[in-house]
Amino acid sequence: VQLQGSGPGLVKPSQTLSLTCTVSGYSIATGPYIWNWIRQPPGKGLEWVGAITPSGSTLYEPSLRSRTSISRDTSENQFTLQLRSVTPEDTAVYYCTRSVGLWGQGTQVTVSS
After folding, report:
1. Do residues 77 and 28 touch, judged by C-beta distance below 8 A?
2. Distance CA 52, CA 36 (A)
3. Number of Cβ within a 10 Å radius of residue 42
């Protein structure tokens, strides 16, 4: 099973960050795992952003909920993160994961004009 994150490495302030995780070897619509987005700002610890369940339900970190959307395309076996109205504080390495045991390689996203 592999997870591959992709998306632009540079986003301007106030724009929308959009990342996609492509999963191979396991269907995202099959339980029992949930599919997460986790980020790590420079010099800080890991922060859970949100998740999508096999049934398509979504869960969000409360402090980010108003700006975050997670969706999926089961035909492509992908799930996507959108984070709106970004600021430099959203600069981080973004990881997609299967529950807590399997991680993608991480995508560096920098928010800067």
Report:
1. yes
2. 7
3. 9
pLDDT at 61: 98
Query: How far lies 30's CA from each of 19, 37, 60, 112, 113, in Å?
Result: 22, 18, 20, 38, 40
What confidence tens digit (pLDDT) does each residue in 17-67 have?
999 999 999 999 998 999 999 999 999 999 999 999 999 999 999 999 999
Question: Which pair of tokens denotes residue 59?
Answer: 């869960």
**Would the pLDDT of 100 be above 90?**
no
23 to each of 6, 14, 49, 77, how far by Cα in Å?
Answer: 11, 29, 18, 6
Do the Cβ atoms of 5 and 106 come closer than 8 Å? yes
Listed residue (16, 11, 21, 51) closest to 33, CA to CA: 51
